[in-house]
Amino acid sequence: xxxxxxxxxxxxxxxxxxxxxxxxxxxxxxxxxxxxxxxxxxxxxxxxxxxxxxxxxxxxxxxxxxxxxxxxxxxxxxxxxxxxxxxxxxxxxxxxxxxxxxxxxxxxxxxxxxxx
Length: 116
Known about the structure:
This protein has strands at 4-7, 10-13, 18-24, 34-40, 47-53, 58-60, 68-73, 78-83, 92-100, 103-106, 110-115. The chain is an all-beta fold. The strands form 2 sheets. Strands 2, 4, 5, 6, 9, 10 and 11 form a 7-stranded mixed sheet that branches. A 4-stranded antiparallel sheet has the order 1-3-8-7, with no helix packed on it. 30% of the residues are buried.
């Protein structure tokens, strides 16, 4: 089973930036059908933030469009989420996810807290 580990979360002031990383247990980002970042705030359902297809096409939630960028580095077995101009409403636990064929794998999440 593919294991994913997120890192890069932390506390940042509004307007600041963070880069989240998602490291896979093996060289899998060259074969994934879809990679994605989700987030979940307390009391809310998990929300799709950004996704990237095997062909490199990206889709973003309207709330993060023009502020967040999803990317991957296959050689490093890593997927990234660059977050700029952070807002307090971005506060959540961020999870990375990959789909290989019909199997979805999830990381444990990394906390992002944006202060006013």
